[in-house]
Specification:
Elements: E1 2-4, E2 7-9, E3 21-23, E4 26-28, H1 35-44, H2 87-96, H3 104-111, H4 124-134, E5 162-163, H5 199-212, E6 223-224, E7 228-230
Parallel strand pairs: 5-6
Antiparallel strand pairs: 1-4, 2-3, 4-7
Length: about 230
């Protein structure tokens, strides 16, 4: 895990005020959780295997890419991030490691760093990199650790998979948050981005919009997770 020194920042999107959010020091996994790590977890807790998990905890596509309950297929998928995992399963995994899911603000705080700066959100190159990833297909099949190492020593915050946070649903995008009066949840990406005036607003918006579309039992092929931990 990487140690993250506490600080404060103003989230670019979804903030209810312009006041900085204070982040206490914590630690976070250097890489997203991989298939081989998640396999070890469900072998110990088979109630979270594909055939035994209850429907209230995961939808029908839970671990759909695996060939069976305890087999994800080819060995070259060992270090590929596990995806099609629900929030409930991700939360349980972290708890079993003595950890937890990072909060949304913690995740954003770590993710705003590039290789040299704690906050690189104003850099056009950084935001173009993030947006270019959004357009690339099947990055979720790449091994962990192939994107850049950021200021904190953390990899894959951008460029590999979307990631669950503990409070992913704490901010819901509504008509008011889009500066209009019409709420159309089916168009959260398209209609919500109309008022994004620059690249960093849009890059951040896409993350918040994606989170707001989720429910805790949802699973998707490009959604994984990593764990965090409080400093004692």
């Amino acid at each position: 895990m990487a140690s993250i020194k506490g600080g404060s920042f103003v989230p670019l999107y979804g903030a209810t005020s312009e006041k900085p959010v204070n982040i206490p020091s914590f630690t976070i996994d250097v890489y997203p959780v991989t298939n081989i790590q998640f396999l070890a977890f469900i072998k110990k807790y088979p109630e979270y295997s594909r055939s035994k998990i209850k429907g209230i905890f995961a939808d029908k596509s839970y671990l759909a890419q695996w060939t069976s309950d305890f087999d994800y297929g080819l060995k070259n998928l060992n270090n590929v991030p596990v995806t099609n995992v629900s929030w409930f399963a991700a939360k349980k995994y972290c708890e079993c490691q003595g950890k937890r899911l990072p909060t949304m603000d913690e995740w954003e705080y770590v993710a705003m760093a590039d290789e040299k700066r704690i906050d690189a959100r104003s850099k056009k190159e950084f935001n173009k990199y993030i947006l270019s990833w959004y357009e690339k297909p099947k990055t979720y099949l790449n091994p962990v650790g192939q994107t850049f190492r950021n200021y904190w020593g953390v990899y894959d915050m951008h460029g590999l998979v979307w990631e669950w946070t503990g409070d992913f649903n704490s901010i819901f995008l509504s008509g008011e948050s889009r500066k209009d009066k019409a709420t159309d949840k089916n168009l959260f990406c398209g209609s919500g981005s109309v008022n994004a005036t620059d690249l960093m607003d849009y890059a951040a918006f896409m993350r918040y919009a994606f989170r707001s579309s989720l429910k805790a039992n949802y699973t998707t092929k490009n959604l994984g997770f990593r764990c965090a931990k409080d400093l004692k």
